[in-house]
# Entry
Amino acid sequence: MRIDAITIFPEIFNVLDVSLLGKAREAGLLNFTAHNLRDFTTDVHRTVDDSPYGGGAGMVMKPEPWALALESVLPGEATDTADEDPSLPLLIIPTPSGHVFNQQLARALSHEKQLVFACGRYEGIDERVYEWASDKFRVLPVSLGDYVLNGGEVAVLAMIEAIGRLIPGVVGNPESLVEESHEDGLLEYPVYTKPSTWRDLEVPEVLLSGNHGKIARFRREAQLTRTAQRRPELILDIDPATTNRKDRDL
Ligand code: SAM
# Structure
């Protein structure tokens, strides 16, 4: 997968050099580039912001550097290969007023050939950029959650990590992706490792029993209890057919 992030702080993305995503980049599974928006300015001060029309606090990101930066990552301009996906690349705009990011969206995005992230700062990007971009990209505003960050970079890092680990080959054992929180609409069951007694605290006995049916039932019940306690709204969203099928298999 090709991922381009446009930002005024490309160094924030240096963390993508390490751990599983660093290895995925080395292995060629993830082709990530951070582009400095200031490289697309034309004035001596490399200005990317200006005061808002209509007044108000803060600054707004100017449209022209964004247009030039976005044009530079379009397939055919930056990478012109015969097997390029004919569909438009997906431009993700991190913003607190976007669709809330979740595991289902991460999974859908993990099938894309190219993702472009436009990291806003200040009060955000001039709205006309999205209108202009909509015939060159599929444009999707996405929020990390109902709070306000200083910039899009941290939100984009979280999204890249959630999406990147779903790309085949990035996580060594694909089984570990299946039994995770939010994959089936529930939170994950509690996990334990050795020693079985630690500071007078015991691992639940059933997990030492070797009885796979009982273990699966224990974990399913723990998932349901934990989800009901911590995120009751998720229980309403799950497909009863899925829950029943899993329980039936035990
Ligand atoms: N004035 C904007 C508003 O009220 O919606 C907030 C601007 S915020 C200070 C600056 C940038 O941080 C945004 O343009 C966006 O890129 C990013 N950002 C802030 N909170 C975010 C969130 N919850 N999810 C995704 N991106 C966020």
User: Anything to note?
Assistant: The chain has two domains: 2-164, 182-248. Residues 244-250 have pLDDT under 50 and may be disordered. The chain is about 30% helix and 15% strand.
